[in-house]
Specification:
It is built from six helices and two strands; from the N terminus they run αααααββα. Strands 1-2 form a two-stranded antiparallel sheet. A hairpin with a 7-residue loop joins β1 and β2. The protein is globular. It starts with 5 loop residues before the first helix and ends in an 8-residue tail after the last helix.
Length: 176
């Protein structure tokens, strides 16, 4: 861990570890597994994974950094998603309609995760105190460090869902 920017280094390590477990959990996911719609109100594995990736791209690149998210820039049309994520917050309805190309989505995920890691490697601890406007999501004004904490948690929460959805299909969930 960096001694000059220990908080940024800690967040970077936590986000990388969360990404690694998610990607390990995604190992062996087939198109049929990704598309399987579980009973009840849960979304498919593919929609859950897509939510993690597009959320990180949109929140970090779009709202946190103020740049064009990869899905709207260099990865436009190559994300593996049948339609873009919802702008109105209706994630469940989107997830029910969504189809994914697992290989393309995993490639896009790697690009998003690399962009996040590169950004965290480039900032200082004092940068984490910079305030950004998350009012559109109902979170008001928050420091950049808050955003990274939310991103780590979001990856972890949904990795559990992916693991469960694999288990419900008779497959091993977590990679350990």
């Amino acid at each position: 861990m960096s001694t000059s920017n220990p908080l940024a280094a800690l967040l970077r390590g936590q986000l990388k570890a969360a990404h690694d477990v998610l990607e390990g959990t995604m190992q062996g996911v087939t198109p049929a597994m990704a598309a399987w719609q579980p009973p009840g109100t849960a979304n498919s594995l593919g929609a859950t994974y897509a939510h993690v990736v597009v959320s990180e791209d949109g929140l970090l690149n779009g709202m946190g950094r103020g740049i064009v998210p990869l899905m709207a820039g260099s990865w436009a049309g190559k994300t593996g998603l049948s339609e873009p994520p919802p702008q109105d917050g209706k994630w469940h309805e989107w997830g029910q309609r969504l189809t994914v190309d697992v290989d393309a989505l995993r490639a896009y995920a790697q690009a998003v995760f690399t962009a996040s890691d590169d950004y965290l490697a480039s900032i200082s601890d004092s940068d984490l105190d910079q305030v950004r406007d998350f009012s559109a999501l109902g979170f008001g004004q928050q420091p950049l460090g808050w955003l990274f904490s939310i991103l780590v948690a979001n990856v972890q929460w949904h990795t559990g869902e992916v693991s469960c959805l694999k288990g419900l299909q008779g497959e091993k969930g977590y990679p350990f």
